[in-house]
Sequence to fold (1203 residues):
Amino acid sequence: MARYVMLIDSGVCMNCKACVVACQQRNHVPYGLSRNWVRETDSASSPCGAAFQPGACMHCDDPSCVRACPTGATWKNRDGAVEIDRSRCIGCGSCIDACPYHARFRHPLTGTADKCDYCRGSTPGQTPACVAVCPTHCRIFGDADDPASDAAKALASRKAVHVIPAGSGARPTLAYLDATTPAELPAGSTGSRLDAMRPLARGVKWTGGLVLAALAGTFVRQLVKSSEKEDEELERERRNAEGGRDKEDKA
Amino acid sequence: MPDGYSRRNFLKLSAALLAGGAAIASPGKARAIGYVPPQGGPVTESKGYCPFCQVRCTYTARVQDGKILSVTGDAGNYWTGGAMCPKGMSILELMDSPFRITEPMFHEADGSWRRISYEEAVAMTAERLKAVRDKYGDKGGNRVALTMPLWDCLESEIAALMTLRTVGSVQAMPPGETCVSTASNMLGLMLGVNSGSTQVDELLKAETVVLWGANVNDLYPPYTRWLKAAREHGARILYIDPRRTRTSLWCDRQFRPQPGTDGVLALGAIRWVLEQGAYDEERARFQIEDFENLAPQTEKFTLERVAEVTKLSQEEILSFYQALAESRRTIVWLGGSLSRQTNGITTARTIILLQALRDNLIGEGKGMLTFQSGKPGGGEELVDHFFGENKTPKMNFRRLRMTMEKKNLDVLFLNSSYRRNPDALGVRKAIEKVPFVVHMGFFLDEESEVSTLFIPAAFGPESQGCGYGNENQVAWREKLVQAPGSCVPAWQFYRDVGRRLDPERYPDFKDPEALCRMLQQLVPSWKGLSVERMRASSTVTWPLFEEGAGERTGTVFSEGKLLTPTGKMTVADRVFGGIDRWDYPKGHPAARDGKKEFPLILTQGKQLWHWQQTLTNFARSMAQFSNGRFVQVNPRTAEELGLVQNDKVMLETVKGGLECWVDITENVLPGAVFTPANCCRTTPLAENRSDSICDILPNYWDRISAQHNCTGCRLRKL
Amino acid sequence: MIRRHSRSAIFMHWFNAVCWIFLLFSGFALLAGDMQPVGRWWEECWQGLFGDRGLLVAHLAVGTLWVAVYALYLVVFGRREALPFLREVTSFDVKSDMLWCAKKGLWLVLGPKQTRKLGIDPALPPQGFYNAGQRLVAVLAVLSSAGLAVTGLVMGFCSGASEWAVSESVLQWCIFAHFCCAGLMAIFLPVHIYMAALAPGEGPALRSMFTGFVPESHAEHHNPLWYAALKKNG
Fold:
């Protein structure tokens, strides 16, 4: 089974933004919005005063965006990618709220959630645009389980570092090589307004179940002995009793 | 996923079978819920190249329904390895830009535009040229001029040169007039080759690479890979730049002299190398005719003097000199900014002499690089073939400007931006005195404001043809898409005008391919550059005298000596004098003509995602990274001036002022000011909008070209 | 026999029934993960039948049809049927209605004999055209229907790339409200089906949902107030 990952050697990034524009064009993302980014952090130790950290959807394991999606339009594929099916997305934005990396946005043309898909939608099977265009080869993409891939080689020889928003508990698969600045991101929410739907769904499930069970029980009980019959019996008893009284009266 | 069915898939499949294959097929496009964008026709892939900088990245374009969907760098291109930069990719947006003008227009006297047909435009232009020819005959040549570059291809340049020749003109301003003129002239004078003497892949063979003001990463992002590769091959990269830039990330050591003082650093280096005896006298004398002049001319540039002028510490200077003295193979890359100071002639000459002294010009891993090296010759040979030789001396821009001011120019073909010249407002006034200005362009910009006739040009992918790059490499491109409206490639416009004027001599070619084939037939250096060969590979290096011959790469001194007539260079030049006459750039606060009301040093330069002052200013894809007109100042300077981040200020020089916002950063030295060169006034995108920086730069003349960097300025808080 | 339901009301009832069951089932199948109240298998079966996208389209199509037909019904029969119906189902007598619900429950679960043994008189308070249970469910159904229709239309037509697309937070509230309404009905709908179709003594009522008529005795027994009113008005 393939396990696709993106690895980034942020130490060689010079923030030229070629990856950003290449991605926007390949995937028809309007300028101003973006599936990927280069984060700039002031850094006294950097020769040019800033440290650069390219990023994109982290294709997390157990992703909070997937948990937040009410319609199953986004899911974690078994090959490592977090996918979006536009045809099922209604653009409610829960996944956008739930991504602690802010990797998602609502595409104004499709009205649906949008994010990095390793360029599978636009050019299936090809190297992602950001990887192909980078002058310093700071982005590496490939199958981590294929020892011949660049990704596996990089993982074998260098340390993989994950950058996690404080308190998010995210489990990104996108890794930085050796070290990166910043090492941690500011706290990011992994929840959305629709989180309340989960307990509600449980409530519906249990209440509905109980009601069905109760109805089934009643149904059986009525099969065994119908309340209507009892009513009739009672009626007969009452009439008999009345009839007796009448006779007594006549007598 | 290929590894069989998960439970999920199994359930889905069985339920679908249950439904008897009645699964609802994807219905047509719904515009609301679950909208999936339409798929469109088949996608084809074609080769192309970027029109902007001299790296000349080649790419693969995905074309669908007559539109380019995206471009991906061509991994087969030896020079770029598949890299591209954002400004190159902006071409996609520019081609479809809502701001693009796609019909020819005539500028009425009252300032309004009248739409005319392409045929009318051609007729009008031909008529004007004919009037010049009829009135002045053979003497009319200097009454018609053209500014380059032309946007789409080499064939367009040749077509334009031929059109000028129909009226006997040779006055085509080279594009580098104000950019790299100094460096290329000095290289021509001293090495016999007016470009770099070697190629960028030679960096791998060098022990030391000196990026002398050469901000490679910002200017040529795809070339970053060569710096990376050089380091991986053990080269040490020394970067000399007062400003910290993206290139700072890639060097082993940066030295930050005061802006405009690089010449002193080089002069001191020569003195120090001589003093230490760190040179081979025989080899030095082989290359330097008046070797004995070196010592006396550099004598006064002691370590103390160099430290005083550059404000580098003596330790820093020494470590730089030692690195130079120890390196057996050094390549120096001359930055463009050195060519934009009036002392640039001395600086460039001194650096070249330093290379000769250390025997770092002839041989592998040695030489000089610049930012505008490659320009295959042969075009003029072809023009001469059809029109005969024309020995009229070529004007430089200074003379052209004077000609215009004296109302001695009748027709100007304005292709490049006039705002690249300092005192741009003065240049504009001069252009306004030309009665007929033809501007081939894309947008309603400053150039169209001063033009009589606007011809909508075609972008590269809308025409076939070949383009050339920094390494003398030539790339071929097919026409990828149809140009909108009446947009025409430059070759077509110039051909149509030329053929109308002079059908006898002006060759009839139907497309760039036909012209390119003439080039191969008639010009020896192009013989091996067949269209077929160019089609088959990403790039082919000019010159190629034989079909099927191998490309010549590496140093131009393949015969072991310099290419000047004598095979040598001189310290004391007949025209430019000795190098001991070094002085601050004109207008510099410390120069003799410096003014104490303008105590800060103004430097300006490109931003990574912008191509000069023109096209990219009209691209949203670039505007998304821009933030208007800013000035960068050092925290110390800011404190002295009482400025805080984002303050609004007026950046003022003797010529005028520009409104800017303040960005406080250690990336510029105390006392210096940096502002980006790209912004223009006419762009509809606020992020890129500002008056041109050249509007406020005084025009200084250094015998070769107009210069403008390092003039004095001040910041006035608003 | 007495006419209890007009032909249009009968049609609307069954139209409603079919739509609701489909919408409820398919709607639950659209929900994923922890928000799915039935189970993963449910989602997968339905998506297998219709396809991922097809299910959404089908849900939206049936929902739109349902809203459209209802809208038409309200326009044509609003005065004559819908308003009187609303008046009828919203006339509550809290004490008597609560008593009815409790006693009806006991009657079904324990039976009248056991109830009597507990010392409670199993006799139900007399009911009008609709009994208390029917009125309660009717009110909930009307409110839920309105909620489902409005939020459903917003999600279907004011989302995505639509010109009238609303903000993400409005959509989220819509999903939430839509789900609340559907959940509520998912609980009450089985009760209604049992009480109206399966519970003993409801045969004539069920038949009337096809024919429109109930026997006089049935009305007299189940809806004595209505029967009395009918008698009074002749």
Q: What stands out?
A: The two ends of chain A are 97 Å apart (CA to CA). The longest strand of chain A covers residues 36-42. Chain A has seven helices and twelve strands.
